[in-house]
Design brief:
294 residues; alpha+beta; 8-stranded antiparallel β-sheet; 4-stranded mixed β-sheet; 8 helices; 22 strands; globular
Length: 294
């Protein structure tokens, strides 16, 4: 299958602010947040890439790909239907699939849209929330149940990278969708990221970015993934400038929600920050130009 598009990667690194957005295994009656430990034992909470992927697919507003349970007993596997293809389901186009078949290597497509974990930029301090069902217990004069839940409000950063020339093409099924549909799908993905949220434990957490930086590049590197940090409520602009190679500089665009960070004039002056709507509109324009060959 011939593809005349030049290899390009859409890369966006973002910061958002959220509260206790991904739990792991409970320890006794304490619900534990997902965490990782670094350096001298500092703990950072994170939201897994699988959780973010789930929310993107759920909010994308497209048909969900059908799934089947294959096999039996302990070997039963839930996977995408054999007839489900990228032609009808953007979910498979963006995030790929693996379909096992007896006596064959099966069918697989690697993800064309890749996500990092969303890792907190502030350390976890061990805060706990005390939970009861007193309201219900009082109705029948019973003793209430007690539980605890770890809580952590922090800035988080994550990165999304899309292989633009591979979206809409599947050599396994010999499918290529037209460029107009490719534009529509990537624009829909950008809209979803711009307004992303996560429902958890009776809360709706806002995951839309308050700072974002990226562009459409010849090099498909998650350029700014490790360069976003916040110290004393101030974005560390110098780290971003430290990875701003000439090959990225002219193609990079930055978005900012004013008033969240201290010294945000520095961000606007040094990174030429746009408003967040302007940022996403600019990326959508660049994606459109790419697929239209401009």
């Amino acid at each position: 299958m011939k593809n005349n598009l030049q290899p390009k990667g859409l890369t966006i690194s973002m910061i958002f602010e959220a509260d206790s957005a991904n739990y792991g295994e409970s320890v006794g009656n304490v619900a534990s947040l997902k965490k990782m430990t670094r350096d001298k034992g500092e703990q950072y909470t994170y939201i897994s890439r699988q959780a973010i992927r789930y929310n993107i697919v759920d909010q994308l507003g497209e048909k969900l790909a059908p799934v089947n349970a294959e096999g039996s007993g302990d070997k039963k596997v839930i996977q995408f239907s054999k007839d489900a293809t990228i032609e009808d389901y953007p979910e498979l186009d963006f995030f790929g699939y693996l379909k096992t078949e007896k006596s064959t290597g099966g069918k697989k497509r690697s993800a064309k849209v890749r996500l990092s974990n969303a890792i907190s930029l502030e350390t976890f301090k061990g805060d706990l929330d005390f939970l009861t069902n007193k309201g219900l217990a009082d109705r029948i004069n019973e003793n209430m149940n007690i539980a605890q839940s770890e809580i952590h409000r922090s800035y988080y950063r994550y990165t999304i990278v899309a292989d633009l020339e591979q979206i809409g093409i599947d050599e396994v099924y010999n499918i290529e969708i037209d460029n107009k549909e490719k534009i529509r799908r990537v624009h829909k993905l950008l809209d979803t990221i711009a307004f992303l949220y996560r429902d958890i434990r009776g809360r709706r957490e806002d995951l839309k970015p308050i700072f974002a930086i990226g562009g459409v590049y010849d090099i498909k590197n998650p350029v700014f993934e490790n360069a976003l940090n916040v110290k004393d409520n101030r974005l560390v602009v110098k780290q971003i400038e430290g990875v701003m190679f000439d090959v990225f500089k002219e193609e990079t665009v930055c978005g900012l929600v004013e008033g969240k960070f201290d010294y945000d004039n520095e961000i606007k002056e040094k990174l030429n920050a746009l408003s967040m709507p302007e940022f996403f509109n600019e990326l959508k324009s660049r994606v459109k130009d790419y697929y239209e060959g401009k």
